[in-house]
Specification:
Layout: H1 9-12, E1 13-16, E2 23-28, E3 33-35, E4 40-43, E5 50-52, E6 64-68, E7 72-74, E8 79-84, E9 88-91, H2 103-115, E10 118-121
Parallel strand pairs: 9-10
Antiparallel strand pairs: 1-9, 2-8, 3-7, 4-5, 4-6, 6-8
Length: 124
């Protein structure tokens, strides 16, 4: 994964609820490593903390729950980050997926995001 990104939240989010309705401050779990803007996240069921989507996991992170809107380094400690969690339209090709994700896994993740009101569309 890249350690630097010049991408900003404006490259990912094309529409969202006003007054930060679509965004929350959340905890990116220690051990997540360096995570860049646009990474699709899952939520650890036991802790409520977020980690990059892991389709083969069984701890809750196998289900897409948010999209991170800032670069963060949670290699050795938990970090507070801003996540997109509801009522928004995002650019599909700006999303960051885990290496090796299959088309059915990606489709399932997009469907999970849609249940939260996050719709991914092709765009620039």
């Amino acid at each position: 994964m890249d350690t630097h990104s010049f991408k900003t939240d404006a490259d990912v989010v094309k529409d969202e609820g006003k007054n930060r309705f679509s965004r929350d401050d959340d905890t990116l779990a220690s051990g997540s490593g360096k995570v860049i803007v646009g990474t699709v996240l899952g939520m650890v069921a036991a802790t409520g903390k977020f980690k990059p989507l892991a389709p083969a996991a069984n701890d809750g992170t196998q289900t897409a729950a948010a999209i991170i809107l800032e670069n963060a380094d949670a290699t050795g400690t938990d970090v507070t980050v801003v996540n997109l969690k509801r009522r928004a339209q995002v650019v599909l090709q700006a999303l960051i997926w885990p290496a090796g994700i299959t088309a059915p896994q990606q489709a399932a993740a997009l469907a999970a995001l849609e249940t939260r009101g996050i719709v991914a569309r092709n765009g620039v």
